[in-house]
Amino acid sequence: MGQPVREVSREEITPSCQRPELAGVTLAGVPRKILYVDLDNTLVDFPSGIEGLDPAIVEKYKGRLDEAPGIFALMRPLPGAIDAFRELAQLFDTYILSTAPWRNPSGWQHKIEWIHEHLGAGEDSVAYKRLILTHHKELNRGDFLVDDRPNNGADRFEGEWIHFGSKRFPNWPTVVDYLRRSR
Questions:
Q1: SS3 label, residue 117
Q2: What three-state secondary structure class fits 91?
Q3: In the annotation, is 177 catalytic?
């Protein structure tokens, strides 16, 4: 997906959340732009969770499937999403910015478990302590937000909203290409 990043020592890749003096700074000391990436229908294939549900549960939660207990544990990554996130985490100060359903407590737990499974749980993970769950995305400060919907404040985000799945940004290759040129 791009030029390989040079190898660095373990000390150099300590997450900025553990070394606050490095938050938003590249190894060369140049400030990195802040990038937020949504989960549902951006990194995560929401329909794949529906496919894994019992038909009786699908019927019971029709019109509000995000409230179905356990649905988030069943979801697969969208094509190219994991590689894209890993690359972008090398180029930007990157966070996952998602909304968890208020009436589905298991969704909150399963979102972090999904990140652990697909991006890693250890301190060396590109997503280590980089999950923000909110119903008010516009309150987060940053340069870019990749999100599939304008909901929960995405359309009022102070930086640039990259509308994932739109005609301009239909998939991860188009998003990564644009962000490479925008940094």
A1: helix
A2: helix
A3: no
pLDDT (tens digit per residue) in 79-94: 999 999 999 999 999 9
> How far apart are the C-alpha atoms of 169 and 45, rounded to whole Å?
16
| 45 classed as catalytic | no
For the chain, domain boundaries: 20-45+76-182
d(CA 75, CA 180): 28
The low-confidence residues of the chain, meaning pLDDT below 50, are: 1-21
For the domain with range 20-45+76-182, which CATH number is right: 3.40.630.30, 3.40.50.1000, 3.40.50.150, 2.40.240.10?
A: 3.40.50.1000
Q: Quick one: 149 exposed, middle or buried, by C-beta within 10 A (0-12, 13-18, 19+)?
A: middle
Instruction: Read off the pTM.
Output: 0.83
Distance between CA 52 and CA 66 in Å, rounded? 13
- Tell me which residue of 142, 23, 169 sits closest to 84, measured CA to CA: 169
Kindly name the residue from 38, 45, 66, 148 that is annotated as catalytic. Answer: 38
